[in-house]
Design goal:
Blueprint (H helix, E strand, L loop, with lengths): L31 H9 L2 H4 L6 H13 L15 H9 L6 H14 L3 E8 L11 E9 L4 E5 L5 E5 L2 E2 L2 H10 L4 E5 L5 H8 L5 E5 L13 E4 L9 E2 L3 E2 L3 E4 L2 H4 L5
Parallel strand pairs: 8-11
Antiparallel strand pairs: 1-2, 1-7, 2-3, 4-5, 4-6, 7-8, 9-10
Length: about 260
Amino acid sequence: MIRTCEVLKPLCYEEINSTEHYTFLWSRHDDPYLQQLRAEFDLESLIAGSGRDLECVQKICHWVHRLWDHNGWHEAVESDPISIIKAAKRGEAFRCAEYASVTAGCLNALGYKARCLWLKRQDVEVRESEAGHVATEVYLPESKQWAFLDPQFDIMPIFQGNALNAVELQGIIAQREPGLGLYSGSKIPAQAYLQWIAPYLFYIDVKLDNRVGIPNISSQGLMLVPIGATKPKIMQRHWLIEEMIYTHSRRAFYAAPV
């Protein structure tokens, strides 16, 4: 359900002077799992005829969005993209996390570097429910930038013709800058979505190991925390946030993938 949000303000991070560096892991394009994912669901045909990276990414987001109807209570038994897609074709429906995982997996199979993005509200520790959301970010080689996608809603924010990462999106929403639009194949009004997503853009974390289809990989994460904010250790009063590195460095969080 789309609801309106509280008043927002731009968030501040360390921008230039940070020397922090983190090692992110990615699957090779010729990884057997990615080859199977690419071939079994004929992913290359989905982007055939596309020109720019933006168009390719939008087509994959749209395809994943249409695989099932959202069910916020049903977690996939097997969490890898191939298993989720097969379960969806049998009629199962899943959460935002599964939309993000499948989208990231498909984009990696097509040669991009993509990752799941765990979003959390400022009151994540004390809120009883709806404290988080999961989306996707993909690195666009043409423009050398990270781009935010929300495949649950089939949405990709665009500002003056360019893609945005999650931090850029939060700042533009908070400052009410003109020129923010949404690519979307859904019927959700743009303003309603922006009001809904904005509070979830306070804390942002990703996994350091973003390889696809590998069981038992490290769950260590990197959380981008606004300057002056507390470092959350609990999710919705009960669930421990474990194996997390906290940083204020926007530069380290959004380093170009190697």
